């Protein structure tokens, strides 16, 4: 049985008590290992009291909770480098006398820039970096020699690595698609429960609901979605829900948030900003949604929100950028070119799906079938197979 050490970024704790795509993904791995017991796991994570209590139920994972670690979301007066190195210093003290088959850094944020700081202090382990996005790869120009293998979440991510760093041995790069808790998103509300949610947001039963879920940052394409919505010919019969904020539940209002509100002002009864909603509650929004839109303008490595929407049986409109076309297909989604009259095309597809409920139903049915590919059982088995196939 392989002994694996997972080093989590110091953003959110594992077991998860909050959202965070990487953390939820690793929680899936830990939960499945409780049932299957095919690997010996140690998880290094920041300390949080509720998470610490949850960790006690795990019999097949040992947790190392790093106390007094500063979350990157809470840092004040320190640089990222200082915050990460303090976290890695505490990690070093906890694992320096342990032996592993593989140590895996689970991050694509700036932690990747400092991973070498720990690796150089513990050079006798075999290190893997699990890239959850296509960002942060610039470190490889100077640090490739530190890693034995790389895990990427999409073929797009792999191709980007090979293109930007052709000197890297292709045999080092492995593919592992992401996963979600499908059971969270297949849940259905009854009519009374749906009406309660609709009432909360001023939605009537005559409204068609278009939903976006994600961080309210420019690269997510929210501004373009709002502009497309505003020029729909069927707009008066629709409501647009914008779910999320810019930094995972904090109350910070950015200039871009203000811009979104400004361009929505004249349609404030139709464009609804809900703010942050916890991942475990998103299925409720999905239950009142008719069309789900992921209008990303930048190179998403995967796109977990797509799988969540698919599991909920929703028709999707998205873009042809990054790893998105690997997750959905033409049978469940309209995949638009972001470089060709994007706003007009998006508006037209919104109108088309509004006017064709049978196509919405067909897309939704196909989406739900396709989502099974991303089950947690599949993820765990693929992870174990990958680990067992590696050469130390």
Overview of the structural elements:
It is a single chain. The protein has 392 residues and is an alpha/beta fold. It folds into two domains: 3-179 and 375-389, 3-Layer(aba) Sandwich (Rossmann fold); 182-374, Glycogen Phosphorylase B (Rossmann fold). 40% of the residues lie in helices and 16% in strands. It is built from 16 helices and 13 strands. The chain has helices at 21-36, 49-55, 80-95, 111-121, 140-143, 155-164, 182-185, 191-200, 222-230, 255-264, 282-287, 304-311, 324-327, 342-355, 357-371, 376-389; strands spanning 3-7, 40-46, 61-66, 102-106, 127-131, 149-152, 173-175, 208-213, 238-243, 271-275, 291-294, 316-319, 333-336. The strands form two sheets. Strands 3-2-1-4-5-6-7 form a seven-stranded parallel β-sheet, with helices on both faces. The chain has a six-stranded parallel β-sheet with strand order 10-9-8-11-12-13, sandwiched between helices. Helix 3 runs parallel beside helix 4, helix 9 packs across helix 14 and helix 12 (304-311) packs across helix 15 (357-371). The radius of gyration is 22 Å and the shape is globular. It starts with a strand and ends with a helix. The model has no long low-confidence stretch (mean pLDDT 92).
């Amino acid at each position: 049985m392989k002994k694996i050490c997972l080093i989590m970024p110091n953003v959110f704790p594992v077991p998860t008590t909050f959202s965070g795509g990487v953390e939820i993904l690793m929680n899936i791995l830990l939960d499945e290992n409780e049932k299957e017991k095919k690997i010996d796991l140690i998880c290094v994570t920041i300390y949080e009291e509720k998470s610490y209590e949850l960790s006690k139920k795990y019999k097949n994972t040992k947790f190392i909770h790093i106390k007094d670690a500063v979350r990157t979301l809470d840092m004040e007066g320190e640089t990222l480098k200082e915050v990460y190195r303090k976290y890695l210093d505490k990690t070093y003290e906890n694992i320096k006398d342990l032996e592993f088959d593989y140590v895996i850094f689970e991050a694509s944020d700036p932690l990747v820039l400092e991973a070498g700081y720990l690796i150089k202090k513990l050079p006798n382990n075999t290190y893997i970096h699990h890239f959850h996005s296509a960002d942060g790869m610039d470190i490889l120009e100077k640090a490739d020699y530190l890693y034995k293998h790389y895990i990427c979440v999409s073929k797009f991510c792999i191709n980007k690595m090979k293109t930007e760093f052709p000197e890297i041995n292709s045999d080092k790069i492995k593919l592992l698609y992401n996963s979600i808790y499908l059971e969270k998103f297949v849940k259905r509300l009854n009519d009374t429960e749906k009406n309660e949610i609709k009432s909360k947001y001023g939605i009537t039963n005559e409204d068609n609901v278009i939903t976006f879920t994600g961080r309210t940052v420019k690269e997510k394409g929210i501004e373009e979605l709002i502009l497309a919505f505003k020029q729909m010919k069927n707009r008066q019969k629709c409501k647009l829900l914008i779910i999320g904020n810019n930094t995972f539940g904090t109350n910070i209002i950015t200039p871009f948030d203000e811009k979104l509100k400004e361009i929505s002002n004249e349609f404030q009864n139709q464009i609804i900003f809900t703010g942050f909603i916890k991942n475990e509650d998103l299925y409720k929004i999905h239950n009142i949604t008719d069309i789900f839109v992921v209008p990303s303008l930048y190179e998403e490595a995967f796109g977990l929100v797509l799988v969540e929407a698919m599991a909920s049986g929703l028709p999707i409109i998205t873009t042809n950028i990054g790893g998105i076309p690997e997750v959905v297909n033409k049978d469940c989604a309209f995949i638009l070119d972001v470089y060709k009259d994007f706003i007009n095309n998006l508006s037209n597809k919104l109108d088309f799906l509004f006017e064709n409920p049978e196509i919405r139903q067909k897309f939704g049915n196909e989406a739900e079938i396709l989502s099974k590919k991303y089950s947690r059982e599949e993820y765990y088995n693929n992870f174990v197979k990958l680990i067992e196939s590696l050469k130390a």
